[in-house]
Amino acid sequence: MDPGIGKGPVSNHSMHPEAIGRGGLTHSALEALLVDPGTLLGHSLPGFMCTFFGLFWTYSILHKYHVARRGAILLGKGSYKSSFKNTLFSTYYACHCTNVPMDAYILLICTSTAFIAEFFGGFRGGEFVLMSNTHHMSIYFFYGLTAFVHILMCRKHPIPVNSDYALFIVACIVEALLFQGHIVGRGAINAKIHMLLVYTVMVTVGFLVLEMAARRNVLVSLGRASSFLVQVKPIIT
User: Quick check: is 6 in a domain?
Assistant: First the structure.
């Protein structure tokens, strides 16, 4: 989930003329550095999200698999699949068996925070001028909507089955389309990195479709979690 979509080529603001002239960063140079998508600050949130959810989902899937295998052995069953069924988010039980999808809440909080930051960060002099921020906002919106719908499903609201998977697929497609348009005006290496992200996101879409159809296949679920982890390297590059 790259926050730099549509903002043009990445420049090296450490060599900003104003910064050189005065021996440090001026206000305008510092502002440019903070909004530059090529900085660590610009990539920290999406990098954190991909790392956290990739690792958390991997652990959760393996934990469910271990519990299902152990139960199958104790009950003398031939297969664990009757006890294993993965969900998009890792639902845990707290208090009196109340469904608490903690990672869905975390995703909703992260995307909501990023959406608000992108919105207010687009204003200059009382006017919304950074239209490229709307690209980032659209990505955060769909990922946040996915988490919100999953939370509603856990709370037994009348929502169609697999709606969370469908929305996650839509969010990934939106992200891939914006990455595709993000390579315009960039150098060969930078464009190549973003195309690798496009391919990785589409692989994630493939795993989501397979997992939606085969919820009891642990390898497909692990593939989806791993594909999210693969996105981390191009994002922080």
Answer: no
Residue ranges of alpha helices (H) inside the chain are 17-22, 27-35, 40-74, 102-121, 133-154, 163-182, 188-213, 218-230, 232-236
Q: Provide the pLDDT for residue 6.
A: 47
Looking at the domain assignment, is residue 8 inside a domain? no
In a domain, 162, yes or no: yes
Pairwise CA distance, residues 169 & 179, whole Å: 15
**pLDDT tens, 153-204?**
988 899 999 999 999 999 999 999 988 887 777 788 888 888 999 999 999 9
Convert the pLDDT of each residue in 192-236 to its tens digit: 888 999 999 999 999 999 999 999 999 999 999 999 999 886 776
Token code pair at residue 216: 């009891």
* 7 within some domain: no
Tokens standing for residue 129: 């001028």
- Name the domain count of the chain: 1
Contact (Cβ atoms closer than 8 angstroms) between residue 143 and residue 167: no
